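The passage that follows is intended for readers who have already worked through the single-chain material. We present the inputs for a multi-component assembly, then the predicted structure in tokenized form, and finally a short commentary. You are encouraged to pause after the input and sketch how you expect the pieces to fit together before reading on.
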Amino acid sequence: MIKNIMRLVVASAIAVFAAPIFADGHGCKISARVSIVGNEFPAIHAVADGAKVCKGSEVKANLTADHQKINVAGMSGNPAEYTSAIIANSSIVALMNNDVIRPLDDLVAKHGKGLKKNQLITINGKVMAVAFMANAQHLVYRSDILEKAGISAPKTYEEMLAGAKIIKDKGLMDYPLGGAYKAGWNLAQEFTNMYIGHGGEFFKPGSAEVSINNAKGVATLEMLKALSTYMNPDFLTHDSNATSAEWKAGNVAMMNMWGSRMGPLMDPEQSTPTVVKTTTLGDPMTVGGGSTPATTLWWDGWTVAKNISDAEAEATFIAMMNGINPKRLDDKMMPLAVWLIEGFKPGPANVGVAAAARMNAIPYPMLPYQGLLHSALGSEIVDFMQGKEGAATALADVEAAYTAAAKEKGFLN
Amino acid sequence: MKHKTFFWFFLPTASAMLLFIALPIFSIVIQSLFTPHDAVIIVTENCDPFGCKQETTIDQEATRDLKKSEPLGKFVGLEIYKDRGHLAVNEIKEIWVESNNFAEFRNNIGNLPFYRAMAFTLTFTFTVTPLMLVFGFIIALAVNSLHQNLKGLTIFFSLLPMIVSPLIGSLVLFWMIDSRGIIGEALQYVFEDPDLSLKASTGLTWVMLIVYGVWHAAPFSFVVFYAGLQTLPMDTIESAKIDGASRLQQVWYVVIPHLMPLITFVALMQLMDNFRVFEPIVGFSAEAHAQSLSWFIFNDLGGETRLLSSAATSSVLTIIGVSILLFPVLIRTWCDFNEKSAK
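Having made your guess, compare it with the prediction:
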């Protein structure tokens, strides 16, 4: 009897002390395993953490910058290792192409209360993903440096170049510009932005035939190269992380950077007070007299694997819904991204992405063969950036590399 | 040994080799001859947070039927081997016709990924292998002549570069040679050139990778040679000394011939390893300047749209490349073996 009472006391003590910790998980009960794979940045961590508070079964998350290298492989098996992949509009294509994610219509109807219509990514009438945040690259600048140089925030890339020259000539900074120009995915992304800004079309209408070797493509490359002359000479090895580090070290005055990276740049714990105080967000820039901003709109969202049991799919859906539960949007989570979740209030770190949407920026194309072009761009325009070959040759190389890959994948004959 | 005994003795090894070497090779050869089916493309209405629009997607159901009827994909023979990403047969023909002189021909070939990668891989292989043999040998001789009490500690420190995982080792160096890193800044100071960047120049990147390669691999040859030195016949050395041989002559005429089989072994291993150079390229983010077949495989498997046939083809080409490299050494070993068994 005494033993039983003791047990009761201990159990209630645990319940009382543990309650605040598990408060988030209140109402989130799952009955099968959940395993998440996704990219690694603060907003994604916040969502995965929200899924992890669910009780009843194990929730694992593997968040890594290499997520695209493992998500298809990890979802192809039966049963799939990952029950959910957090992806963006470019990377959902690989999952679609390989047929490893399931339509979510029934789960949305059952558990998707509170989702807004624009969160549902529908492909051919079926919901294939639930978007939770929007992202875009836009201008960020150091107001003190620009003030000292006597220039205003650039609206176009041409103004950015002119401003960089003034900053350099006045001796304020050696390399006033920054950018994620690392050979590969990042550099290809900058090309994509700039080419869209020039009003370029990547493919001949209605076909997988590439068409970037034109005047707009050449202008795009020339602009990228002109910008790179004002960057740290190691620019071809700098991804978003390295570029952010350069910014926090106070070495850069202007750059085109992801909205999702703005929070850390303005975090007093990560940089000097001067940099934090003067880091200012601007609108995405236009180029070559165009009106479409030279940037792309992105959404990040989650999917549910196809090759898993219905119980696991349901558990995954419930856990991921908890990850994007509006109740979780507290002071910590709010500034991490432009959330598409109900109740989001834009803060100072979000104005850039909002501006991109307002200026009618074009979403990154969700085409089955866009990824192949992206890879080809990432490796073939490097020679041009190093001054080893002309713009037309580089673009011809891109087209040839893309064509070889597209033939292999059966997109071209 | 009786044939039956030999059979049972060899069976575990043989089955492991079949399972882990022969089958995978067979599998990549097959995969390199097939490509995915032609994609059945349809235009559908897709919606996202930014609105709805007509877009091209793959018709999964139609594609699934195709896959079911022919699971291997579409047979293309050697097409992938001949495409631009690999041997680029047609491109080479065109370049040959269009180029006016050899320099131009060479330049244009350098524009094709496979040959660009080969240029780096072969340079890397044929500089790193001899250099690491020489350095390993010198370290082994030096350590061997140290006082007994110092040997253990010295061996431990000499082995460190090999103990550190290649990716970590190259990443550490990567940050040190950054133009704002300790070595990078020091070089800028020494050469009085504030714009000097090891990462921005192809030539310097190659030098950096080669230095890293030697740094990482020298301990391996050191350890093997050091072990070999412990079996050195002291009477031969002593008689050489009595004959008035200098230290250098002793090394040249006694030590090196004694270690020759080990040198062949280390050279063999290193030729193979260096031809597959990969980690330093990733660690140093050097893909803008230096690529290798292994890096191509990694890249094909990693992209948003994976190129499996291309990766398989690069793997087969790597195997062929390694075989060509090892051929002279293998012939030599075979001859030695025959000589010995003839005696």
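Commentary: Chain A has two domains: 2-134+299-351, 136-296+355-408. Residues 198 and 216 of chain A are 6 Å apart (CA to CA). How closely did your sketch match?
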